[in-house]
């Protein structure tokens, strides 16, 4: 197992933990069986994604969020502003660490987690291969920068954006094509941003979505994607291992991308991989 230092655990614990998560997050937490997980996120009132995470209903009164690329203390502080009279505690860390392996776990299958001596195992594999994420109290996972970079590239290749801080609050779930990951609900009822998400879905107003590119060199989130002299869209997420660079861009759904570039660097469109939805 190698450490994933850009992943952190936030735990909601208490009688109202599930009800609070159901009211705040964009997935249908109430419909999730105990011992199972799915993708979820927290939105602004205007329907923009603040953070994406894997959400595990670990027990009747415990929900774990595995955050990517966000400060857990800041995220928890923002979330606590909405607790009011709900009976729950929002914890960060609690001695929990996140690690990964590029192989399959025999008992963690699809949305079902497994608990063993290594901690809680999540199946995060897809069409690009098998991998397992662990939430564990073990601090001994080794540092492996190459494996961490490979992990992030796997995420992007399967359409899971890795949102840096400046990209937080910029995009709607539809613009990030999060329906591919079954990460949001349009039927469960109210949550912050739900009206925007539902209106876009039911009126068919989604005009932009994710496109995956292999880049000739390093590009950065927030840079403009150009088609010759014409702005085409924006880079939302990037990852690379020093020899290969990937980028997810938010573009018009029908955009031609065969001549796309960023700052003069060519972008080669490649298909998104399936299999990461839960």
Give the strand order, joined by hyphens, for the main sheet: 11-14-13-12-15-16
* SS field, number of helical segments: 4
Strand content: 25-35%
Task: Describe the main β-sheet briefly.
Answer: 6 strands, antiparallel, barrel
Kindly identify the CATH topology of the largest domain.
Gyrase A, domain 2
Stretches where pLDDT is under 50 for at least 5 consecutive residues are none
Secondary structure: number of strands? 16
Distance between the termini: 23 Å
**Dominant shape:** globular
Secondary structure: helix percent: 10-25%
Could you say which structural class the secondary elements and strand pairing correspond to?
A: alpha+beta
Question: How many structural domains are formed by the residues?
Answer: 2
* Known CATH architecture of the largest domain: 2-Layer Sandwich
Radius of gyration in whole Å, from Cα?
Answer: 18 Å
Q: List SSEs in N-to-C order.
A: EEHEEEHEEEEEHHEEEEEE
Instruction: Write the CATH homologous superfamily of the largest domain.
Output: Probable tRNA modification gtpase trme, domain 1
CATH class of the largest domain: Alpha Beta
Estimate the mean pLDDT confidence. Answer: 96
Q: What features would you describe in this structure?
A:
It comes from Luteimonas notoginsengisoli. The chain starts with a strand and ends in an 8-residue tail after the last strand. A hairpin with an 8-residue loop joins strand 9 (119-123) and strand 10 (132-136). The protein has two domains: 2-157, Probable tRNA modification gtpase trme, domain 1 (Gyrase A, domain 2, 2-Layer Sandwich), CATH 3.30.1360; 167-270, Elongation Factor Tu (Ef-tu), domain 3 (Beta Barrel). The protein is an alpha+beta fold. It has helices at 17-24, 72-80, 145-157, 194-202, and strands at 2-3, 7-13, 36-43, 49-59, 62-68, 89-92, 97-101, 114-116, 119-123, 132-136, 208-215, 224-227, 230-240, 245-252, 260-262, 265-270. The relative contact order is 0.17. The chain has a six-stranded antiparallel barrel with strand order 11-14-13-12-15-16. Strands 1-7-10-9-8 form a five-stranded antiparallel beta sheet, covered by helices on one side. It contains four helices and 16 strands. It is globular and about 55 Å long.
């Amino acid at each position: 197992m190698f450490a994933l230092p850009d992943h952190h655990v936030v735990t909601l614990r208490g009688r109202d933990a599930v009800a609070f998560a159901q009211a705040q997050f964009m997935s249908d937490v109430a419909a999730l069986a105990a011992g199972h997980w799915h993708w979820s996120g927290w939105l602004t009132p205007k329907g923009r994604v603040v953070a994406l995470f894997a959400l595990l209903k670990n027990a009747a009164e415990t929900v774990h969020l595995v955050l990517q690329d966000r400060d857990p203390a800041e995220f928890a502080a923002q979330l606590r502003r909405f607790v009011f009279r709900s009976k729950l505690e929002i914890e960060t860390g609690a001695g929990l660490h996140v690690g990964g392996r590029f192989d399959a776990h025999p008992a963690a299958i699809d949305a079902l987690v497994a608990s063993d001596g290594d901690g809680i195992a999540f199946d995060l594999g897809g069409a690009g291969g098998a991998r397992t994420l662990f939430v564990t109290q073990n601090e001994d996972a080794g540092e492996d920068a190459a494996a961490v970079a490979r992990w992030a590239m796997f995420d992007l290749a399967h359409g899971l954006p890795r949102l840096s801080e400046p990209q937080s609050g910029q995009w709607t779930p539809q613009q990030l094509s999060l329906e591919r990951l079954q990460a949001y609900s349009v039927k469960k009822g109210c949550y912050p941003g739900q009206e925007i998400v539902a209106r876009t879905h039911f009126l068919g107003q989604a005009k932009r979505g994710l496109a995956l590119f292999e880049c000739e060199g390093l590009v950065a989130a927030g840079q403009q994607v150009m088609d010759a002299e014409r702005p085409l869209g924006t880079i939302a997420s990037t990852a690379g291992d020093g020899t290969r660079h990937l980028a997810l861009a938010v573009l018009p759904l029908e955009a031609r991308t065969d001549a796309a570039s960023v700052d003069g660097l060519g972008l080669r469109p490649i298909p998104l991989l399936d299999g990461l939805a839960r």
